[in-house]
């Protein structure tokens, strides 16, 4: 292209070196191009009605070109015959990433990679369950290589591939083909009657110059327009406008088991041009060994769609228990750790353990709902606990938890009590809510508590002060005064054997009557003093009756809790305003945390 010299090439194993379809290309490709291989694969897909495919590539040079060619060939198919749908295209940096394909509906995989990459990819595919009898793998020549008798052990029986010879002997044979192309083109130039002698001379030789050869494109046209008859009735050697061969024959091979082990067997031939109808592609297939030694080709579509379901436990929506309880509570076994942590673990044995940390029995409302959906919508599922154990919030500008797994397509659906908020609704889709809820402030209750001052609570402090400091003192004072001045009372001038009736003895009488204590007291002798004592006794009787009646109600055990008025409560807005400081919190990265952060920043 840059020096203006036509090139006849044989690039058999790497489409990264193939020419583009630009108008300035001066290359003739003798080997089957990646477009020929892609066309053969599409013909094979159409034959068995495998219409939903997934393209898997490694980092091999030309992997983007291969995917583009597959898309273009499907688009070029007439609309009424266009059935093939590319579900996804995976370019694998790590072979273990093939596990992403397990979450798609694809059952037919088209693999384009190097042989070394294919070994790692197929090993990871086996671990992910993608090599069972319902899966088909179709490979290109770059995966198969030269030796058909020694395929890698990682390749499963039943693989299909497109093959053509890339041995050294084949390359040497192409030297003669190239010389024949040059000879036929020179013969046409020499025998041309429309070209003068000087122009013919310019076409066959170029002088020593660093400039682009101006006559290179003319020579390329003669090289590309040759038509060389072939032996055995094969189509003539001709080239298309992009420099690729018009007539190409590719072998369809199948990985089968023999006494000596696995090996690729030729089971058919694909021809880009029919001998009778040049517009028609021909595919001739013999008996094929299908994956899993099945008697018929795989359907190419899943019997049931498989869904990866992420969850986070919360009663009563999803409850966890030992695996052995699943039969009793209609639960299902759910995986508590990520897949890489299960490598080397006997999963069957682990599911039987009562204290397993890898598997638990999931039950509850969401599990019952999921089981119902799986029956009605005909899908299989696998429940796995979210890796980081979080509901889904924004931390440092990035989502975590269940929301992150949905955004990164690490799971298909989430089935749990995940609340809807404006932030989550912007990045993920929710189903119709099955429960309307709101935000509730939960406080701790202290039950069985009796206040140390409960015996004083039947009356308020003013009543107690009136009784203790006023009523008792007045009653004692009047009784003592009337007894002092009464003629029938104690004569205070003489000393009696029983002692004098003093003010302290009067107080003792008043307290004894008030509490109805069975103690010795000095009763007054005067009628007036006795009348006052009876008035006090009547008051004490009524007071004690009221006190006793109310005391039972106040001595009942109570439940104490902070009586918050709402999110604007002073204890929430300013926790340090009370002593000790009021402590509160919420589940991090949850819906309540998100609402508080955005709507109540002073509380958050």
TrEMBL record:
GO molecular function annotation? ligand-gated monoatomic ion channel activity; signaling receptor activity
Question: Where, in this chain's numbering, is L-glutamate bound?
Answer: 424, 592
Recorded GO cellular component terms are: organelle; postsynaptic membrane
Transmembrane segment boundaries:
461-482, 503-521, 533-557
* InterPro entries the record matches: ANF_lig-bd_rcpt, Glu/Gly-bd, Iono_Glu_rcpt_met, Ionotropic_Glu_rcpt, Iontro_rcpt_C, Peripla_BP_I
Query: Keywords, A to Z?
Result: Cell membrane, Coiled coil, Glycoprotein, Ion channel, Ion transport, Ligand-gated ion channel, Membrane, Postsynaptic cell membrane, Receptor, Synapse, Transmembrane, Transmembrane helix, Transport
Q: Where is this site: Interaction with the cone snail toxin Con-ikot-ikot?
A: 597
Q: How does it sit in the membrane?
A: Multi-pass membrane protein
Domain spans labelled Ionotropic glutamate receptor L-glutamate and glycine-binding: 351-408
Q: Which Pfam families match?
A: ANF_receptor, Lig_chan, Lig_chan-Glu_bd
Compartments it resides in: Cell membrane; Postsynaptic cell membrane
Site feature: Crucial to convey clamshell closure to channel opening = 564
Q: What is its main location?
A: membrane
Domain Ionotropic glutamate receptor C-terminal stretches: 336-538
Q: Which PANTHER family match?
A: IONOTROPIC GLUTAMATE RECEPTOR
Family recorded in the similarity comment: Belongs to the glutamate-gated ion channel (TC 1.A.10.1) family.
Q: What is this protein called?
A: Uncharacterized protein
- Write down the species: Lepeophtheirus salmonis (Salmon louse)
């Amino acid at each position: 292209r840059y020096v203006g010299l036509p090139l006849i090439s044989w690039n058999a194993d790497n489409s990264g070196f193939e020419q583009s379809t630009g108008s300035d290309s001066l290359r003739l490709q003798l080997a089957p191009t990646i477009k020929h291989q892609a066309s053969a694969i599409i013909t094979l897909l159409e034959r068995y009605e495998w219409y939903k495919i997934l393209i898997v590539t490694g980092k091999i040079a030309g992997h983007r070109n291969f995917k583009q060619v597959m898309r273009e060939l499907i688009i070029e198919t007439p609309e009424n015959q266009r059935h093939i749908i590319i579900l996804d295209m995976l370019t694998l940096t790590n072979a273990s990433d093939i596990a992403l394909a397990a979450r798609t509906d694809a059952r037919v995989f088209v693999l384009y990679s190097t042989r070394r990459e294919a070994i790692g990819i197929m090993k990871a595919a086996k671990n992910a369950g993608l090599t069972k009898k319902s899966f088909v793998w179709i490979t290109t020549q770059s995966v198969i290589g030269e030796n058909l008798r020694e395929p890698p052990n990682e390749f499963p029986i039943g693989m299909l591939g497109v093959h053509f010879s890339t041995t050294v002997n084949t390359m040497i044979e192409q030297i003669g083909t190239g010389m024949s192309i040059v000879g036929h083109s020179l013969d046409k130039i020499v025998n041309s009657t429309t070209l003068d002698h000087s122009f013919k001379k310019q076409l066959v030789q170029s002088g020593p110059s660093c400039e682009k050869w101006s006559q290179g494109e003319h020579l390329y046209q003669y090289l590309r327009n040759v038509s060389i008859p072939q032996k055995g009735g094969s189509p003539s050697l001709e080239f298309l406008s992009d420099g690729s061969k018009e007539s190409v024959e590719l072998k369809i091979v199948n990985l089968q088991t023999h006494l000596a082990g696995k090996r690729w067997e030729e089971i058919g031939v694909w021809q880009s041009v029919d001998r009778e109808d040049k517009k028609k592609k021909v595919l001739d297939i013999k008996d094929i060994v299908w994956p899993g030694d099945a008697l018929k080709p795989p359907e190419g579509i899943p019997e049931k769609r498989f869904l990866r379901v992420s969850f986070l436990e919360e009663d009563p929506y999803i409850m966890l228990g030992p695996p052995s309880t699943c039969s009793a509570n209609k639960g299902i076994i759910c995986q508590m750790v990520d897949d890489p942590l299960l490598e080397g673990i006997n999963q069957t044995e682990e599911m039987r353990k009562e204290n397993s940390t890898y598997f638990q029995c999931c039950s509850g409302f969401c599990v019952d709902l999921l089981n119902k959906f799986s029956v009605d919508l005909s899908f299989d599922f696998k429940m796995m606990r979210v890796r980081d154990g979080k509901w889904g919030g924004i931390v440092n500008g990035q989502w975590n938890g269940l929301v992150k797994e949905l955004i990164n397509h690490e799971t298909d659906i989430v089935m749990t009590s995940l609340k809807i908020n404006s932030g989550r609704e912007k990045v993920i889709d929710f189903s119709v809510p099955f429960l309307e809820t709101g935000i509730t402030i939960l406080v701790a209750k202290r039950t069985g508590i009796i206040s140390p001052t409960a015996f004083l609570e039947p009356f308020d402090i003013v009543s107690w002060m009136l009784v203790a400091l006023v009523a008792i003192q007045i009653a004692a004072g009047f009784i003592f005064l009337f007894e002092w001045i009464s003629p029938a009372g104690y004569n205070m001038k003489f000393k009696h054997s029983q002692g004098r009736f003093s003010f302290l003895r009067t107080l003792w009488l008043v307290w004894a009557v008030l509490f109805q204590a069975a103690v010795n007291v000095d009763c007054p002798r005067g009628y007036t003093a006795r009348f006052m004592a009876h008035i006090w006794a009547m008051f004490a009787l009524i007071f004690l009756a009221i006190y006793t009646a109310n005391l039972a109600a106040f001595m009942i055990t109570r439940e104490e809790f902070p009586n918050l008025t709402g999110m604007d409560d002073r204890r929430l807005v300013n926790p340090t305003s009370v002593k000790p400081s009021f402590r509160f919190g919420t589940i991090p990265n949850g819906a309540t945390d998100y609402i508080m952060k955005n709507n109540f920043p002073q509380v958050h």
